[in-house]
Design a protein that fits this description.
Elements: E1 5-9, E2 12-16, E3 22-24, E4 29-32, H1 39-45, H2 54-69, E5 73-77, H3 92-104, E6 106-110, E7 125-127, E8 130-132, E9 135-137, E10 149-151, E11 156-162, E12 165-170, E13 172-177, E14 180-185, E15 196-197, H4 201-206, E16 212-219, E17 222-230
Helix pairs in contact: 2-3
Amino acid sequence: MEPMVPLSFAGEEFVLTQGRALYWPRESALLVADLHLEQASFYARHGQMLPPYDSRETLERVALAIRETGARRVYTLGDNFHDNDGSARLEEHAAGMLAALTRAVDWVWITGNHDPAMAAGNGGTVVGELELAGVVLRHEAKPGETRPELSGHFHPKLRVNVRGRHVARACTVMSSNGKRADRMILPAFGSLTGGMDAGDPAILRALQPAEKIDALLPARGKLAQFPLWRRAA
């Protein structure tokens, strides 16, 4: 089992897993963003053939995160399926995995721009966004939001130089005002998802107003923090 890394956010204690999920112990809640289930079958319909096992792999990783954290609730932060028809393309094994997961925990789907009309027949509850214990859960960060917020959408990745090699790693992006971190963009959880540079202007704009914005990477049981932006004095 990979070590999980604690962090403080919005006055609460959270845990980042090595597998790109966020766990909220007080709420016994696991949060994952951008599953993009059935992404491979979507591409196949458009002539780009990929191995059709992405949904199985992603759901296996969700199941592992639930076991590791002991979560009793799961919140998905949008783009759950790669398109509105994705759930209809789930093959039998993946469909069975999803049904078992949504029966085992209290599961809430938050819709995103890829699946705004997601059907309600996949188990769990489907919502556009919600507020949990004072924290807004939505798919895309809302510029100007002053409440604590957790979101996805941008698939942030950090490019770092490791022993002379350039490496891109999925990361979390967090903004702070004063001493308190209050908004966070989670990395994409899906097995086929690409990524946007964590310091891209679109991400920095989405997290305004802020005093500073950092990229976070769990590494060997510790939290590595990389400055992305700081408001000029």
